[in-house]
Protein 1
Amino acid sequence: MLDLSELLKELQDSTLRAVQERAKTEALFASMGEGAIATDENGVIYRINKTALNILGLTEKQALGKWFPDVVMAVTHENKTIPLIDRPITRAFLSGRTISERIYYRTKKNPRLPVFATVSPILQEGKPIGAIETFRDITQEHKVDRMKSEFISIASHQLRTPLSAINTYSRMLYDGYAGDLSGAQRDFMKVILSSIDRMNELITTFLDISRIETGQLQINSSSIDYNEIISTISHEFAQVAAAKKISLRTDLPRAPLQVTADPLLLTEVFSNLLSNAIKYTPQKGTVQVTLAKRNKNILLKISDTGYGIPKESQAGVFSKFFRASNIMQKETFGTGLGLYMVKLIATGMGGKVWFVSRENVGSTFYFSIPVSNNNDGLPAQMDEFLQQQ
């Protein structure tokens, strides 16, 4: 058995090791390049590093022992306070999961500072007893994203002019204005014209996205029959579906379904979703379109028996330039921008878009918007979505 002196020595050694480990943890916390804040189970700040103080423009006295939401103010793009329940730290604490997203903080120097924040709950026996948030200033990244969007817009405009001339003269050649073409020449011209169409489609997509991202998209809302829009576009895609022997079915209400929205944006959303469903469904498959009113919203549902989206790829479906790994081998052409634009428009219209999918079984995409929506907040809401990417 250990005598008293040995027990005391062991206790001293354990205490020293604990103090040393705590010192290491404190040093690590203090020297982090990102802002770091630790709170207890009541949301009271008990630790904050110098980086966080510098970003927020605070002193330790102004932060320590204070309630986190009172010290760190989170706001929307329009500089409105974000409700406590929607804050990343609240969601992380309630769910027990790590939450990462872009958000705006109100500081003494900047009423709307863009930051990227990650909040991790501190768990003890599966129960949260606090949380740690790390964050960094992403002002420069935000500016670079804007510059990229503006560059793409300018480049696309410059490309459109020469491409328009190429398109015009190529079609004149194909139609025999410069003399009859041989069979081989006509085949070559078909390939050229097809490539021109794809290039035009790509440029149009780039321009649409850049206008949305920079808040330059003109919104023209009116009272329209959603049912008629879906019916018209479905009819236009009927031949595309028939060429692949795909059964395109529609289940639409008999009566008009009025909605206040921009008809061009609704057309863009449905065209992208339906085009994808047909494109990524193999021959002799089925695509089902359903439109119905659900309380104060209208729900569009598009189901297919296509390739489906692998589970490991589903988190990035609405990201820019996303293409699932199983699709790139089957369909080589694709920009990966369609669903990104659908998400932008849905967010801006105060609606939602989501999906369920199983690889080699098929996918179902849902698009829901309010019956009445003036779209006044479109640019701001678009920007909030972009901050989360």
Protein 2
Amino acid sequence: MQRVHIAALCVAIGALIAKELLFRYMLAMATRVKSSMLVANAWHARSDAASSLVVGVGIVGNLAGYPILDPIAALIVGLLVFKMGWQFGWDALHDLMDRSADEHEVTAVRQTLLATPGVIGVHDLRTRKMGDMIVADVHIEVDAAISVEAGHQIAVAARQQVLTRHRVLNVMTHVDPRKLSGVDGTAVQTGV
């Protein structure tokens, strides 16, 4: 088996540093713009960095007189690539199958709806992913004593708040009337 040159080790170390820096930059950008495509691309750069590290270990082993480490390093790189491909393929499949948004995003949308003036309560909030965006259906509760027009305006305002604050493509709202004072002074729902 032929020995490798020290220049190969320098190239592997340079690739490792460059790919790790690229990973950190792309992941920061992906998080900022909430793009699953950029997250996948960032992790691809990280897998390249990991591959460069393994290749570097194989080269060091070869230079130290252990040429068997070279094919072992190649096997490990192949397994890393397979693992990354499987993971991102699985996540992409879930996105294609109308996976719901994660609990953090759902909670944030719920809080935005509840913060809208006139919204008394929120229930039946359902979400599904559509690429990097979310589509939502929700029932909002408003005071039963207000007019239909006022209830509609509250729903429009709630929808607009969600669309501007979150990565939501569309929100379908249903307005439910709710009495603000029951027999014991507690709120009572009167509609469905």
